Structure formats: C-alpha cells, structure tokens
Amino acid sequence: MAKKEFSGYKGEALEVIKRVEAEIGDIIRVTKNREVYEGILIPCSEYDNEKYLVIKLKSGYNIGIRITPNTKIEKIGKGAKPAFALPPLAGQNPELPKVAIISTGGTIASRVDYRTGAVRPALTASDLYSVVPELANIARIDTQILFSLFSENITPKHWTKIANATAKQIAEGVDGIVIAHGTDTMAYTAAALSFALQNLPVPVILVGSQRSADRPSSDAATNLIGAVTAAAKAPFAEIAIAMHETPSDNSITLHRGTKVRKCHTSRRDTFKSINTTPIAKIQDQKITMATEDYKKRDQTRKLALKPEFNEKVALLKFYPGMNPTAIDWYVKNEYNGIILEGTGLGHVSEYCFDAIKNAVEHNIVVAMTSQCIWGRVNMNVYNSGRDLLALGVIPLEDMLPETALVKLMWIFGQTKNVEEAKKLLKTNIAGEFSPRTLSEKEGNE
C-alpha cells in the first residue's frame, strides 16, 4: 500500500485529515459558520498551528482554515499526489559548449506544482529546459544533485565535497561549471572554492535566487541564464557569483569569489563586490568585462586541487564590553587561528590585549580585519593599532572577514606550520587583497 502524504500536518489537523481518509492533493469541502470552502488540500509549513488546514481554492488562492468544534470536513474527490511529469528532453545542439550544473540546494534548484503548492527539486536537464527554455540555446547541460541543503547547513566538509565534484567535472572536459547554492552563505563557499580550486582552466559560477520560483518576482530564471552564459562563454577562468546587478531583470553581475558579500536580506541585487569592481556583467546574454585583471580561460591548463579545510579557526567580532575570555576559550580548545573583526582601521579595546597576547604565545595565528564594509585595515595610525601589531596581530589589508576566515581554514588544511600559515595568510592567492581601496561608488559602478 502506498504511503499517504500529509506534508507538514500534525496534531488536531492531522487527526481530522486521517479521519476523513484524505491526503495531500485530495479535494475537500470545509463547512464552517455557514460558509462552505472547497479546494485541494495542500501542504502546510511544519511550524504552522496544529489547528489549521490549508486548501487551494478554484480561484487559485490558498487559504488557511482554523479547525473549531463546529467545523465540518469532508473528502469529496480523490486527487493525484504531487508529482512532476518530466517533459521530453530538448534536442541538444552538439555545437554548443558543455556546462555542468551541480546543485547543493537553495531556492533556485526547485519548481512549484501550482495545483498543490508543493515545491520539489528541479535539476534534471529536462526540468531545467522546461523551466528555462533559453538554456537550450546557450549550452548543453549536464546536471548533478550533490546534496540538497539550506545554505546555513553547509560546512567546510561540504566545501571539500563541492571542490572534488567540480574537479571531477573539469577532468571530464566541460567548458564551464555552475553551482546552484542558497544565497545566505554563498559568499563563504565562493571564497572556499577560490582557494581549493587553483589554476582553473574554465569558469566556475555560483548562482542562487532571492525569490522562490512560485513568486512573480522570482530571479531564479534570470540568474540561471546569466550563470550558464558565463560558464559557457566567459573569457575568464575564476570562481564568481552571478546575481542581479539591480532590482530589475536587465543585467547580471559577476563578482569575484573572494571579494563579494551579501548585503541585503531580500533584494535581488543583494550581492556586491567590496573594495573592487565586479569581473563582468551580462546583458541580453552578452558578456562585458568590467576589468582587465582576470585569469583567462585556457582548457589546457591543469587544475590544482587543494580541497582540505581545518575548522579549528574562529571569526570573532569585537564589540564594546566584549568579554576577552571568549579569546581564552579558543586558546583552551586548541584552535589554530582567530580572525578578529575589529573596529575602523583595525582596533579592539586594550582590555583584550592580554588575551590576545596569550593566544599568540600559544602559537595561535591572530589576524585583524575591519567591521567596516569599505576601506582597509591600517594599524599604524593609532597607538592601539601599533600595540596590537607589537603583540603579533597580522593586519589583513582589505580582506573581507568572511574570506579571511575561510582562507585561514584552508591554510591550516594545507599546513600545520604556524610560520608557513602566516606567510600564506599574507600572500594574495585568489584576489582576496586589492592593490588599492576603491570608494563605494567606484566599487559599484
């Protein structure tokens, strides 16, 4: 017997559904306070109140109905379970570049069944061509679901898996790679891959979506078209993030993986290049380079795969009144490195100095970044900065705190030698340092 589908329902609502022998997709009639509602029983959030049913009316609207003692519920029709019928695979032009799309999860790798409201993964080539038919004229698509995770659940161990999967696709001769990823920690993953995948022969483009596919304002298709275009045709061979340049659908910006930050919770143009210009932009599937400073595509180049990360590195944000015993905790637990996110030019209060000195004396690499989004650390201006330098704190110029954290994790995945780690931390490996600091206006033009 097939297992019944009750997505998200529990408590009293689940008992009512079972009592009338209904399941997701069935047509039900709800009578309450002399009002009658008929529609399709659709999934509800697992966090919804246990006394509510959610149905899709014939009008297309979804409504929630609270169950009370005078609520009558009947099953009046049998519906099909939420399912997607795969369309036939579009004919692939053998002359087009070959692009591999690796999914790690996120809003972009899904589609909605509008009959039931259910969201399902959509990462087969057939699904992608049916949802975004423009892709058939850009590239031949191969797809792989590596894992399906909310991006906050992605860890350094997953970075290693993504790097290995990417390296495998490169070894098989693809012309470019797209990685579908949730937006919240996409910049961390982009930085991680920038260090793990060196000497790239082809572009590796991370892409996400701020708006889900069931919303008219979804940016999923536009972003995916831009990402696949870049992977197939861009002249550079670097790690980049492809997302909206502005709130409108006019163009996609490609940001270098070590110099990008998510700057807004919900805007479609949330990603910005910090202290540098973007690599390129795409408009009407035409790529325009925004800088001459990039590594050129060269498929004869041999990839250097260095996918190991060590998680015993911390990112610690200074704030007024911060307890310096937080630093002592990392020393006690034998961490290898601490990235400080200091104020302004790179400062923390003098009451933290003893804890920092103790960390350095225990061979922990301590480095300084700034809480400010634009600008760079300069610890020679004020006494407190110079004192921190004397204690052995390493200034990290204009490196983003998130990138610094990822880089130090990567460094200690390559070496246990503290002096070698310090040397690598100060070496510009993947464009994480800018030669000069741009103004906010320059960086976003």
Question: Could you explain how this protein is built, in words?
Answer:
There is one protein chain. The chain has 11 helices and 23 strands. With 445 residues, it is α/β, with parallel strands linked by helices. It has 3 domains: 11-77, SH3 type barrels; 98-305, Rossmann fold, CATH 3.40.50; 313-425, Rossmann fold. The strands form 6 sheets. The protein has an 8-stranded mixed beta sheet, with helices on both faces. Helix 6 runs parallel beside helix 7. The longest helix has 16 residues, at 156-171. The radius of gyration is 26 Å and the shape is globular.
Task: Put the structure in a nutshell.
Helix content is 24%, strand content 24%.
CATH class membership of the largest domain:
Alpha Beta
**CATH-derived architecture of the largest domain:** 3-Layer(aba) Sandwich
Largest sheet: 8 strands, mixed
- The computed structural class is alpha/beta
- Please state roughly what percent of the residues sit in beta strands, choosing from under 5%, 5-15%, 15-25%, 25-35%, 35-45% or over 45%: 15-25%
Distance between the ends: 60 Å
- Tally of individual helices: 11
Number of domains: 3
Task: Quote the CATH topology of the largest domain.
Answer: Rossmann fold
Q: Please compute the radius of gyration using only Cα atoms.
A: 26 Å
What general form does the structure show?
globular
CATH superfamily of the largest domain: L-asparaginase, N-terminal domain
Question: Overall mean pLDDT score?
Answer: 88
Indicate the low-confidence ranges by residue numbers. none
